[in-house]
Amino acid sequence: MYRNMDVLISTRNQFKATEMAYYLEGLVGVKMHFMKDTAINITVEEDQNSLEANAQKKAREISKLTDWYVLASDGGVDIPGLGDKWDVLRNQRTVGEGKTDQEKVEVLIELMKGLKGEERKCVYYLALAVARKGQLLWSAEGITDIGYITTKPEKTAIPPSRWMGHIWYYPEFKKTFNQMNEAERNEVRKVGAKLKNELQTYIRSLI
Q1: CB of 146 within 8 A of CB of 123?
Q2: Which residue did the predictor score with more confidence, 206 or 1?
Q3: What is the percent of the chain where pLDDT is above 70?
């Protein structure tokens, strides 16, 4: 049993770090640390056969470099309407890893040309894993967001690392993810409440 618990959020992507921090939000006795504030410099290849296995691998490998607990994640968008043209494990490869955010948006819009209504539905799956000193302690995967891909991207600039949010549309808000305010984003985050509760239940068992 631990009175205080240090947890490293294992991504240098600031947007992803903020989203991951949400899953630890409100836990008493937990101190969050961020990769950008550490000297840890490692790239873990996401070569496993599931999002959860990728998250587990990252958590194990990064936890070998610190005494803190490590929270790692891997996420992917599923677009059922695209069938074999889309792979939840390889979103970036499908739209082009070396392309700009604007080009990625254009590639996906073109891929979905002709799809209408529910065929444009998109589902975000997130896997989380906790490890310490190279040992996997906990992991889970769940749906954390549901929306629709727009037929035309908004004309504003794309915030760094948020190209998907530029075209991820919520009919109930009549906005894309990038257009929403924090209160609206907290509302859609409720889709991931089950995964958040599972993680926090495990963390509380350690404190």
Answers
A1: yes
A2: 206
A3: 99
